[in-house]
From TrEMBL:
Superkingdom of origin organism: Eukaryota
Substrates-to-products reaction catalysed: 4-aminobutanoate + 2-oxoglutarate = succinate semialdehyde + L-glutamate
Species of the source: Lipomyces tetrasporus
Subunit structure: Homodimer and homotetramer.
CDD domains: OAT_like (cd00610)
Keyword Signal: no
Region (Disordered): 25-46
Pfam families tied to this protein: Aminotran_3 (PF00202)
Protein's UniProt name: 4-aminobutyrate aminotransferase
This enzyme's EC code(s): 2.6.1.19
Molecular-function GO terms, alphabetical: 4-aminobutyrate:2-oxoglutarate transaminase activity; pyridoxal phosphate binding
């Protein structure tokens, strides 16, 4: 198709179909959901939730200027003199953002189905979170910012038990908090390495003089040759250790020294999944065979495998529960830890509180990392042997942030009070159904729609990166803030209040 025709078709798709579908879905009674089993989450509860959260949320995007507006451009140019703005889409007015709508410097209101790269769980200026932010407990956490590893607060255990730990995946009862998703993954890697070396030493827990000497020279045996295995197209962060497991885009890694760690192929499935079961099983078996070969033959000891339930930055790539069940079996067979990176998939995004719950594993993973929609960051674990044998080994000044853990506690309470896991699952089903209908009408623009039965974790492919980027820009011109991933994919990441009005 000629580029001019493609551009015209893309704009028709955006302005007449996708944007209308998303806007109508977020603000009208088009969605009539089956009431969840929890009686506190009936249609009446949904109505009161919308009224309680965002009574002033608009019914449609409000566009005062074209995108980007003149004030946004002016402020970006000014900010760029003191701060790198090359990746910035717009300058935002967060005080005037509300619910599912983000406001820019020109006072344009966009329906936001990207939500700060999947990081806003309950909408902009959520009153429950704002109340928590003004509490004496929060003031204490911010003003007296504790170094949690050495000077934890008298309130710290209660904050953890009532919030982050109360939402722990099945089989987990301990947590280590961190500063970000990348930091959470790096701390999990450290835990895996220390666990592995402790197992090698056996009952001898003391470090030898040789270990102490060589580690100061970044040499073995004090600094052993160990590895973390990740998958092709994976994204696990941009810090040094996490970056060595990130494989999604060269721009993240260029010019940065990296550990020589292995990667395994991740299944390239065909969609919709239920129409290609035979082909997809063969593809997953191919990847599992390659993985086992790497686990057996890699030149250094692999201490852990890290995997995303859905590869997000790498293109929203899925695998079936079968693949992850076999992955878990292989890690146990070879005595390797399994780290599940739930930084983007966690906190109800996929219609379960944790995405790996979809897998129905016989035994849970060894560590599960989190961040983004939880606002706080860290990793869960259960095995006491994953705790270092001495202090200051898993450590930094802050060791997390109690103010963010307070917000995480309130998020957990709201998710439970309004059964937002069920709500997200229902919303995802509605969205997927209508996007599938659009794909059937515009197959030259929407391909490989994926995310069925995975809540609002939905994506599709454009024909190429240029078409995708044009679509994202045109969507903003239609009042929808949506994001991309991979080389040419479009992804949705709305917050949990999306559709909170739909049963009215």
């Amino acid at each position: 198709m000629a580029m001019s025709s493609l551009r015209q078709a893309s704009r028709v798709l955006v302005r007449s179909r996708v944007a209308r579908t998303l806007t109508r879905s977020a603000t009208t009674s088009a969605f009539h959901s089956t009431p969840p089993a929890d009686p506190t989450s009936s249609a009446d509860a949904s109505q009161s939730l919308a009224a309680h959260y965002f009574p002033t949320e608009p019914d449609m995007p409000r566009l005062m200027t074209s995108f980007p507006g003149p004030k946004s451009v002016e402020k970006l140019n000014s900010l760029d003199k003191v701060y790198d703005t090359q990746a910035a889409y717009m300058v935002c007015d967060y005080q005037n953002s509300v619910g599912n709508y983000i406001c820019d410097a020109d006072q344009n209101l966009y329906l936001d189905v990207y939500a700060q790269i999947a990081s806003i769980p309950l909408g902009y200026n959520n009153p429950v979170l704002m109340t928590a932010a003004q509490s004496p407990e929060m003031i204490d956490a911010i003003v007296n910012r504790p170094a949690l590893g050495t000077f934890p607060s008298t309130l710290w255990e209660q904050i953890l038990r009532e919030g982050i730990l109360s939402a722990a995946p099945k089989g987990f009862d301990k947590v280590w908090t961190s500063m970000s998703g990348s930091d959470a993954n790096e701390c999990a890697y450290k835990a895996a390495f220390m666990y592995h070396r402790a197992k090698q030493r056996g009952k001898t827990s003391e470090f030898s003089d040789l270990e102490r000497q060589t580690t100061m020279e970044n040499a073995s045996p004090g600094s052993p040759d160990l590895a973390i295995l990740s998958f092709d197209k994976a994204f696990h962060g941009r810090l040094f250790g996490s970056l060595s497991t990130t494989r999604s885009n060269p721009i993240h890694k260029l010019d940065i020294p990296a550990f020589k760690w292995p990667k395994a192929p991740f299944p390239a499935l065909k969609y919709p999944l239920d129409q290609y079961e035979t082909e997809n099983r063969a593809e997953e078996d191919r990847c599992l065979t390659a993985l086992e070969t790497i686990l057996q033959e890699w030149e250094s000891r692999i201490s852990a495998v890290v995997v995303e339930p859905i590869q997000s930055e790498g293109g929203d790539n899925h695998a079936t529960p079968y693949f992850f069940q076999q992955l878990r079996a292989l890690t146990k067979l070879h005595g390797i830890l399994l780290i599940v990176d739930e930084v983007q998939t966690g906190v109800a995004a996929t219609g379960m509180f944790w995405a790996h719950e979809h897998w129905n594993l016989d035994t849970p993973p060894d560590l599960v990392t989190f961040s983004k929609k939880f606002q706080a960051a860290g990793y869960y674990y259960a095995n006491d042997d994953l705790r270092p044998n001495l202090p200051f080994r898993q450590f930094n000044t802050w060791c997390g942030d109690p103010s963010k853990a307070i917000i995480a506690r309130e998020i957990v309470k709201e998710v439970r009070a309004h059964d937002l896991v069920t709500r997200t699952r229902q919303v995802g089903g509605y969205l997927y159904e209508h996007l599938a209908e659009l794909q059937s009408r515009f197959p030259h623009l929407m391909q490989n729609l994926r995310g069925k039965d995975r809540g609002t974790f939905i994506a599709w492919d454009a024909t190429d990166s240029q078409t995708r980027n044009m679509l994202l820009k045109d969507m903003k011109g239609a009042g929808i803030n949506i994001g991309g991933c991979g080389t040419h994919s479009v992804r949705m990441r709305p917050g949990m209040p999306f559709f909170s009005r739909l049963s009215q």
